[in-house]
Amino acid sequence: MRITIQNPLMGIVIGLILIAIVFYTHRAFPRPIYRKLYRVGHTYLSFYRGERQRRSSRLSTLFIKIAIASLLAVALAGISIVEYVRIPIESSSISSLSFNARTPVVIIVDTSGSMADNMDSVKYALRTMVSLFNNTIDIGLVEFSHSIKSAIPPTPNRSYIDMVIDRMEAGGGTMYSFALSTALSWLRPYRELNVSAFTVFITDGLPGDPQDYRPLLDEYNKLGIPIYTVFIGEDPRGIDETKLIASKTGGEQFTVESIDRLSDTLNTIASKINTIIANINVEISMYKEIEMSKPLTPYILAIAGVLYTILRFLTYRKTSLSF
């Protein structure tokens, strides 16, 4: 919200002119009338009845006149309050967009050097998980270690995803931030269209970049993208780290102490996501932000009118004149 003035220069000029007129008429016009009303003849003395009261009264009426002049100048300057309002966009293209919207699930897989002995089991579990997702889901894949090894944006092409899974090789360190930021960049446009999105994060190691990846969790949470985390192993630090990711994003954490249980765990996650999607009524909404201007001139003139009424009352009470 902000305040705008359409003609500030005109308001200043008119304000100065009105205030000058107020000062001139206040000093030049009423005083002779007051003298006639209040002057009393005396052999030795002439005085003005209630001189102190009249001075106080004239000072108060002067302030009121200045206030009225200032308000009129502001009203003529065209002051308004501008608010930014989001309104839905009505378009025939929205219906077709709603029809084509598919829920994205991005699978993030740690293939650092520590995963070398488990790669065959990981590949099998991933292929099985991909096959279990229902046909309304687009699947994305991020393979990472200390950098991004492969990145496939959400796609309905399951065969291509399986091919990339088969080519995975272990090696390198463990950096969470690159993989999470990549997935976030893909999923953000879906959430802006109010399409549900999910992430599955699989790792067996601790991050070398906690200070870099943790701020990303706030973005996931703000966009409403849950991360389902799977930690392979028994290291309590890794379990706690993946619990942190899940809790901050509204997801769920799973621990796989034995690699043989990885496939069952991923199948459980796939079933959970399928169930959630089946119960979601996707409504795509697009909005645009517009400026709404609310003129303050009527309110300013109303205040000026009230002050003018008060001024006339004070003048009448002191002089019995209504002008």
From TrEMBL:
Q: Which PROSITE patterns does the UniProt record give? A: VWFA
Supply the Pfam families for this chain: VWA
Source organism (scientific name): Ignisphaera aggregans (strain DSM 17230 / JCM 13409 / AQ1.S1)
What Gene3D superfamilies does the entry give? von Willebrand factor, type A domain (3.40.50.410)
Record-linked InterPro entries = VWF_A, vWFA_dom_sf
User: What keywords would UniProt list here?
Assistant: Membrane, Transmembrane, Transmembrane helix
Asked if Transmembrane helix is a keyword of the record, the answer is yes
Q: What is the lineage of its organism?
A: Archaea, Thermoproteota, Thermoprotei, Desulfurococcales, Desulfurococcaceae
Q: What is this protein called?
A: von Willebrand factor type A
Ranges for domain VWFA: 104-269
Q: Per the record's keyword annotation, is Transcription regulation included, yes or no?
A: no
What CDD domains would the database entry show? vWFA
Q: Which residues cross the membrane?
A: 12-29, 62-82, 296-314
